[in-house]
Design brief:
Length: about 525
């Protein structure tokens, strides 16, 4: 009973946060300036009306079904081979279409992406090590991905393929497609609804699988696989494969963390729920059995961490990375930058220069934390509310995941005269005459999905499903993280499948109704 109340409490905290986000992005959408403001010309209130109509139709259909059948519709069990085999075929088709689509829209971009690709090309084609590079000493988290890029470029060059850029895009597309497969299976496990599984996968394809971000070879597409794969392992594990599964979760989560640091949130949340749930179910188990189980679990996790870090150290040796330890930026820098009222909590070079001016990491951390505290104190209380609202808009009010909001974005693009390329670019490129249509289309699906996410406040058919609660806790953690640290809608891209999972769970809660068992 206590465990059930704890999970219900988390649901309410999550729901209050999501509803708060919806209120902010609906009321303040086109009325406030905020950093990285989206390009959508259609106000969110229109999408709210669409959601109310859709939800109303669902409720009416459900009530009509109950009245005619005298029972509450329950999801029918699904066989893996009947559902996931088709998703597997569709994922392959998606990947092939992604390549065709990426060829039509790709271009070389600037910002951090160019730093990584250039370093990887020099390493793979010229044998130039990273060494004590100023950029990588500041952002050492990008070394692991640069090494992966260099390996891909080296591999394709050995096969006689001269292009060193597009193969990086192709691998990113493969990871996004594979993520869609595991995402769909998560929906199958969570809801047991075939129709909801396909509907969620289609949403994934629209907003993530065919997002133009797949044409940018960077950590967003290369890290997206790991949170979803970890969730899938967590949902499908059983007592027989318990320890091997947790070893895989740990390795996958930390490898993802080396590519994109926020992936570690997945491991933290899953580890927490495993401890809480394990402590609950083992109360009646003898102490020695509990100790043996706990020690085995912790040793397995420790082994996974060790293996992952061995991979990291090996990659640093291969890349020839010899960092200047005094240049490293830590979380304190992003906290300080995330509290910058003038820049809306987003990236700004002024704060980068300020952090870089410190001689050591210890001095930098102390200075950044002091500055962050000063900024928050100056904003408290009323200005802080406005600032939080602006960050909320920056983070959660863009269905394109802040497409184009990076420095020197269209660094170098190539003309293609075929009809398909021109047609697609007219939607994707900012200068395209159909760009506004594409932005509104993405925003509509994004907003409606957020509305379904909020429906998890409804009392559902279960209150003891710790795995489902873990997923919405992860989404809550992601959203809180972006509200505290640097703001950017792009940082949600790798976690987009988890956000769609929450939307599917909210829709499933609506379909089941409060009286479902």
């Amino acid at each position: 009973m206590a465990e059930s109340k704890f999970y219900r409490m988390i649901e309410w905290i999550y729901a209050i946060f999501v509803i708060g986000v919806l209120v902010v992005i609906t009321v303040l959408d086109n009325n406030w300036y905020y950093i990285y403001k989206n390009d959508c010309k259609v106000p969110n209130i229109v999408f709210l009306v669409i959601f109310v109509i859709v939800a109303g139709i669902i409720v009416f259909a459900r009530m009509s079904y109950i009245e005619s059948h005298k029972e509450i519709p329950q999801p029918a069990p699904m066989k893996l081979q009947d559902s996931m085999k088709m998703i597997g075929y569709l994922s392959i088709v998606l990947f092939l279409f992604q390549l065709f689509y990426a060829v039509a829209i790709w271009f070389e971009t600037g910002w951090d992406c160019r730093e990584l690709v250039t370093a990887a090309q020099d390493m793979a084609l010229n044998g130039t090590p990273i060494g004590d590079s100023h950029y990588f000493s500041i952002y050492p988290n990008n070394v692991f991905l640069t090494g992966i890029f260099a390996g891909i470029i080296k591999g394709v060059s050995m096969c006689g393929i001269p292009a060193a850029y597009f193969p990086l895009i192709a691998i990113g597309c493969a990871l996004v497609s594979a993520t869609g497969y595991f995402f769909a299976d998560c929906i199958r496990v969570l809801t047991a609804r075939k129709s909801l599984m396909y509907l969620s996968w289609i949403l994934y394809v629209i907003l993530t699988g065919l997002s133009p971000w797949i044409s940018i070879p960077y950590s967003d597409t290369y890290s997206i696989f790991f949170p979803t794969f970890c969730i899938w392992l967590y949902l499908t594990k059983d007592d027989k494969n318990y320890l091997p599964t947790w070893f895989s979760i740990t390795v996958a989560a930390f490898v993802g963390y080396f590519i994109k640091p926020t992936v570690l949130l997945t491991f933290i949340v899953l580890f927490f729920f495993q401890i809480v749930h394990g402590a609950s179910i083992r109360k009646s188990v003898p102490k020695m059995v509990r100790y043996k189980h706990t020690i085995g679990f912790l040793l397995t996790v420790l082994l996974g961490v060790t293996v992952a870090y061995a991979m990291k150290f090996g990659m640093e040796k291969i890349t020839g990375f010899t960092p200047d330890e005094n240049k490293h930026f830590t979380a304190a820098h992003y906290l300080m930058m995330g509290a910058n009222y003038e820049y809306g909590g987003g990236y700004n070079q002024t704060d980068v220069n300020a952090s870089a001016s410190y001689a050591t990491v210890a001095e930098r951390n102390a200075g950044d934390i002091k500055e962050a505290a000063r900024r928050i104190g100056e904003m408290f209380p009323f200005k802080l509310v406005k600032f939080a609202s602006q960050k909320c808009l920056t983070n959660f009010n863009d269905g394109t995941y802040a497409w184009g909001n990076e420095g020197a974005f269209y660094w170098e693009y190539y003309e293609r005269n075929d009809g398909f390329s021109k047609f697609v670019r007219s939607f994707i490129y900012h200068i395209g005459d159909r760009h506004d249509i594409w932005v509104a289309f993405c925003q509509a699906f994004w907003y409606v999905n957020l509305c379904f996410c909020a429906l998890l406040c409804l009392k559902g058919r279960r209150h003891k499903n710790y795995k489902e609660t873990a997923i919405l806790t992860l989404m809550l953690a992601i959203m809180c993280f972006l509200m505290v640290f640097e703001a950017r809608a792009r940082y949600l891209y790798l976690y987009s499948p988890i956000i769609y999972m929450c939307g599917a769970l909210g829709l499933n809660r609506l379909l089941l109704g409060k009286d479902a068992k």
